[in-house]
Design goal:
The chain is built from 18 helices and 18 strands. By secondary structure, it is an alpha+beta fold. It has a domain of 117 residues: Rossmann fold. The protein has an eight-stranded mixed sheet. Strands 15-14-16-17-18 form a five-stranded mixed sheet. A hairpin with a 5-residue loop joins strand 3 and strand 4. Its EC number is 6.1.1.21.
């Protein structure tokens, strides 16, 4: 009986997990450039950096996600060898609360800090919606007054402008969770269900940017909303009268995703205060907004920069007072080809109860979080980021691979690097010189350095200007003529290598 043919081992399919993406060199450099500008503003305001780990014990994170219709309550979790559950952080605020509580005796309050890092959410991925993304936060812990909230709003306005986003292209929109609570109390949202209906209402209102008024009304109602894929989201269970009162009180019937109509936001707050008073609801939240408005206006931040808007929600459950969002107002084309406003690139608010979960003591706190990837996309749309290309390295070619020659080539590279010039020695197979030149061309190397035995004996080096060489080569018709002409290539003294490379790079830059 003939032996059966052995099956070839199946190749492992290279694939990234759903909702996760690789990042290119250009994206990484653009992110670093943007983060540097944000950090400069935060430092100017007197904030200091801190870093917390990506993993936290799950009970320390709490259940505060805006969406809880996914396994593991929206987080990625693993069990440690001591059977304690740990989760990847879903934001940078809950870990900060743990850090403050754990070090409360060493930290000087108010504690003013910033940090950036990756966060993870076990949510359904979609266009522009990833399970791993970067945030950049600033927080003030231990400051009970609304002046801390006012400062956050002013700092975010300054950050937008430091990134090159001009006035009129952004606005910081401000509301108060106490205002929303008062509105919900006035329409008799359930209070005896552990806060479930209240939270469902907040999450529904927070979806305006995604689903528009019609979608929000569906989420507020009893039937809920079905998305394009057929997934159903349960409604908050309000009746039509309750929905209309909430829509009217928060201004969703008039708002257009972050823009304002030119009406004074002071008048908006006055009308809101009057309406809540007539309903017998609390006006504490409106009074806090009026105080913040007075502070920012006195500091020169008018409503074209900071706008008080009762339609702002913020979906996270832990907010207890003022909430704010940074919105970009310019138009972009979405995946459906429609012109839409870019929308939110960050937000935050006051979370006075988060540290108290650990300490049992009131520790007021307020903070702001920027969505780094989303903001980077916006800046690219505006042509404000990644415009300066990073120069590819100068390439030192390898003509001989004996130890002495390799040492000489490496010395050239180190001399160039020591002078602040990006440089590398060719690391592939040096037998085929044309392959080294193709590598330099694909890499975009501006200069190639060549030294064979003859050049080394005469203390000479060949420099090839790849940019000028391409220009000259365009006029050459035959390979023989090309080899004879050596376009863009010339000889220098080896001792002058660094100076000559600097000169050539300067000429290329000016051209």
């Amino acid at each position: 009986m003939a032996d059966k043919k052995k099956k070839k081992p199946q190749k492992l399919k290279a694939r990234s997990p759903r909702g996760f993406v690789d990042r290119s060199a250009a994206d990484i450099r653009a992110t670093d450039e943007m983060i540097g500008k944000i950090r400069e503003v935060y430092e100017r305001y007197g904030f200091d950096p801190v870093e917390t780990p990506a993993f936290e014990y799950t009970d320390c994170l709490g259940k505060f996600l805006p969406d809880t219709d996914r396994p593991n309550a929206g987080v990625f979790s693993v069990q440690d060898d001591d059977e304690q559950w740990m989760s990847l952080r879903y934001d940078l605020t809950a870990p900060l609360a743990r850090h403050v509580a754990e070090n409360i005796n060493e930290i000087t309050l108010p504690y003013r800090t910033y940090r950036n890092g990756w966060v993870f959410r076990n949510e359904k991925p979609g266009p522009g919606r990833f399970r791993q993304f970067m945030q950049f936060d600033a927080d003030t812990v231990g400051a009970p007054g609304v002046q801390a909230d006012a400062e956050m709003c002013m700092m975010m306005a300054d950050t937008m402008e430091a990134l090159g986003i001009k006035r009129g292209d952004y606005v910081i929109r401000v509301n108060n969770r106490k205002v929303l609570d008062a509105i919900m109390a006035s329409v008799q949202v359930a209070e005896d269900d552990g806060g479930e209906q209240r939270l469902a209402v907040l999450r529904a209102l927070d979806k305006f940017d995604k689903f528009g008024l019609e979608g929000v009304v569906q989420l507020l109602g009893t039937k809920g909303r079905m998305d394009e894929s057929g997934d159903h989201t349960k409604g908050a269970g309000l009746n039509d009268a309750q929905i209309m009162r909430i829509v009217n009180a928060t201004g969703w019937n008039e708002v257009s995703s972050g823009s304002n109509s030119g009406v004074s936001d002071g008048l908006t707050l006055a009308n809101l205060e009057k309406a809540l008073s007539l309903d017998g609801a609390s006006i504490e939240g409106v009074k806090e907004l009026e105080a913040i408005r007075g502070i920012v206006r006195a500091a020169g931040y008018e409503q074209d920069r900071i706008w008080f808007d009762p339609s702002v929600v913020r979906g996270l459950e832990y907010y207890t007072g003022p909430v704010y969002e940074a919105e970009l107002l310019f138009d972009v084309t979405n995946e459906k080809g429609e012109k839409v406003q870019f929308g939110s690139v960050g937000g935050g608010g006051r979370y006075d109860g988060l540290v108290k979960r650990f300490t049992g003591q009131d520790v007021p706190a307020t903070g702001f979080s920027i969505g780094v990837s989303r903001l980077m996309t916006a800046l690219k749309n505006l042509g404000k980021l990644g415009q300066d290309e990073v120069l590819a390295p100068v390439l030192v070619t390898v003509m001989d691979k004996d130890t002495e020659s390799l040492g000489a080539y490496q010395k050239m590279v180190q001399d160039l690097r020591g002078a602040g010039i990006r440089a590398e020695m060719y690391q592939g197979n040096p037998k085929d010189f044309s392959k080294q030149m193709r590598y330099a061309d694909k890499r975009g190397c501006p200069i190639v350095i060549i030294q064979g035995n003859e050049e080394r004996e005469n203390s000479k080096v060949q420099l090839k200007d790849m940019i000028e060489g391409k220009r000259q080569a365009a006029a050459i018709e035959s390979n023989e003529e090309y080899r004879a002409a050596r376009p863009g290539q010339f000889e220098i003294d080896a001792a002058d290598l660094v100076d000559e490379v600097k000169k050539l790079l300067a000429v290329q830059a000016s051209a």
